[in-house]
């Protein structure tokens, strides 16, 4: 039985984590932390009486094994530092830390022998897609990426598509895309070290990515669809036991698969 | 029984036409024309003795009902003019005529009451895709196009993708694509009156197109794959009887479907 | 401005209809009906004061042009009869009427010159898929259907897949599927007049259907994805003005597209 | 430089191998074997003078490092035995050996320290699909398989689909498919230890396979398309150097990736 504390438990992802932990026989929710909200209010959230509630980092006293963090960019570094220093293994889904901050935490974790996981994406399908794309590119280096998102997503390409391109690029190196003459500018997409990336924005779509490989007489396509952010819980569920026994602070869910 | 003459019968598409006509009980091959090749040589091509062979336009005497033309850009206009003037209904798959030339031929056809069909694409799947895309866009105006071809195709986007965009644009009018901020230039594709077009070039691929429609909570995708230019014969087979009874020179296979 | 009454407005689809009507400048919500709930309770639902609330059919007095019905199988026949008799054009999304009931209502509508629409599926993408599939089958009669739904859906195939097969079958007639030898029983799917149907059930999936056409050297695929039942509102929005001017009771959204 | 002998070099796959070896700077064609055809005839095949031609196993004298075998079921066992005994590393694409024969050859290879590769499928995309599917099933055990082939393929499911199911089943064990009620028999597909398999047969299609994984709120799909048997050469090209240094007789291309 792994004892879990959820930081940011009143947010949308925090709530999903609470629910997932409660549904899982291998996990026990022992603490819930959300700054700036008084404990009386938190008591109305329907948690079991065995769950200790905290509204300030200083107050936290817990025997939790794992600290799941879905808080905010400005708080996450302090939270994870606190967890490691108190021997609690972090599972971090909050975005916004700098590379330097991640490095500092990794040093601290190594020194304290309290490992854990920081992951920009806890969606299993997205992480598996990236892992497989990286592996396929060794054998089928001709590749393009198409990501598709709802029309409210302003930035393009998606972070996952860029990460995929970076991972592919590591194994196949620079390789120019086939020569083209665009009669309509931009039609051949964006170019990341010779990997063409295309971003589609349409209402109705949620978050989807395809990696297309072509070779003589054949094609391989890997596609993932995220219909719902609840899919992140699939990854958090895997990360909790892995973090509990980690001695390093691992970056990227793919590194525990 | 429709009597057919094949112009350019020694080329790849001409040969496929000869084979298709021979396999079809409703058609009879009565003439085969290929300029610049002596008739003695043509006799070795395995055609039936009933097929009259011609190596020059001037020599052609035929009772053909339909003239199927897979020749070359410089010859097609003269060929089709000859056919109409001699009361033979043209089915034209040769590319390269100007809009002006097509208009001239349409006028001639109307005047002589000898109609036929000129089609840039005889692939049924491509033509159906365009037809359906145009219809869907009335109800689902949010749309993007992805075309995928082999890596030797230099021009982008494909002619079919551009035609698709034009047909969609006719029904939905100008509608800007969702606002985006590209962190990698070109990633949002080419823009045709607000319709984003993406072109993929990969070895192994042949000729494929997808039209993606999105609406609140739903998506519709129409995809066509051309694995082989032999697929053009599916369209030529439909075009021959339609041309035989046409009184206008129709442009586009979709207009007989 | 079309005046709308929503029957079953407290249910999930009714609520979506209320919201859609309120967001649309061409429609005005003038009545809301939900049996068995007292009007005092209904007043707390946040509707405008101009909306008349009814909890019993007998009490309804309204100048509504259109009656949108998302109620229950046992109530829908009576509701639609009431609407037509009072000159209100019905838009019916409630399932459960028999063919005989539908016929009776169609007779009544014709007699009263008060038309409307009954549709088993208001998802635009699903209706367009069926329409296009029927048309494509004229030219590409070799076809199979794959439907994909969440793993809680017990019945297979889906109603939409069966309707698609029926519509295709009408145009292409009986045509046996290619001969196969199954080394694993059932692998070639179900057979509806020679059209093979395959049903996939997986967690994460919502409601999706693909129709695959194959021809010599080419393929055409039409796919629709329903991510959310909110997508039904796309169809209801189209149905309201069409119903308002209909003089017959039309069955199937495809017949107004 | 790896010296290669091609057995069955006059067949379709043998010819493709000859061409691939000739185009590759790391390989040298030193021998070509085809039983039952006189050497004089073989000399007309356009091979370089440095290639020794053999029409009988007994006559073969060669310094080849690797023996690529695309022959016939009745000959392959004898050929591979001959190769191993003469210190030539086999790359075997010929089908038809029994498990017992494969085991015998593996024993012989181990004893002689002359390894190689036997692969039922040299298509890289198919092999990568199987490998990834096996890995994904550890994390996303809910899975179905759809294979799609041309309408002349009589047997269903395809060998690759069955192999995929077997590999997935090894890692996820028995897990019943979701409960369904079929209103049309067979619609839920074939069942291999709880993995549903669906086979599509349509003209135009070549050889394609999809593996669909579903999890809470997400989906992962791996798809491969073989447009042309020439794609097998992508795998043979990888297998030759791997075989040349193998000390075991490896079964399955996936085991060298």
What does this structure look like?
Chain A is of the alpha/beta class and 257 residues long. Chain A folds into 2 domains: 113 residues, 3-Layer(aba) Sandwich (Rossmann fold), CATH 3.40.50; 104 residues, Dihydrodipicolinate Reductase, domain 2. Chain A has a 7-stranded parallel β-sheet with strand order 3-2-1-4-5-6-14, with helices on both faces. In chain A, strands 10-11-7-12-13 form a 5-stranded mixed β-sheet, covered by helices on one side. In chain A, helix 4 links the parallel strand 5 and strand 6. The first copy, chain A, is elongated, with a radius of gyration of 21 Å. The model of chain A has no long low-confidence stretch (mean pLDDT 94). Chains C and D meet through strand 7, strand 8, strand 9, strand 10 and strand 11 of C and strand 7, strand 8, strand 9, strand 10 and strand 11 of D. Chains A, B, C, D: Belongs to the DapB family.
Q: Could you write a compact summary of the structure shown?
A:
Chain A has 257 residues and is of the alpha/beta class.
Oligomeric state as shown: homotetramer
The arrangement of helices and strands of chain A along the chain is EHEHEEHEHEHEEHEEEEEHE
Classify the helix fraction of chain A into a percent range.
25-40%
- Classify the beta-strand content of chain A into a percent band: 25-35%
Number of discrete domains of chain A: 2
Question: What CATH architecture of the largest domain in chain A would you give?
Answer: 3-Layer(aba) Sandwich
DSSP helix count of chain A? 7
Q: Can you identify the CATH superfamily of the largest domain in chain A? A: NAD(P)-binding Rossmann-like Domain
Biggest interface, chains and residues, is:
C-D, 46 and 47 residues
Shape annotation of chain A: elongated
What order do the strands of the largest sheet of chain A run in, or round the barrel if closed?
3-2-1-4-5-6-14
| Strand element count of chain A | 14
- Main beta sheet of chain A: 7 strands, parallel
Radius of gyration of chain A: 21 Å
Average pLDDT of chain A, rounded to a whole number, is 94
Model regions low in confidence, pLDDT < 50 over at least 5 residues of chain A: none
Q: Give the structural class of chain A.
A: alpha/beta
| CATH class category label of the largest domain in chain A | Alpha Beta
End-to-end CA span of chain A: 21 Å
CATH fold node name of the largest domain in chain A: Rossmann fold
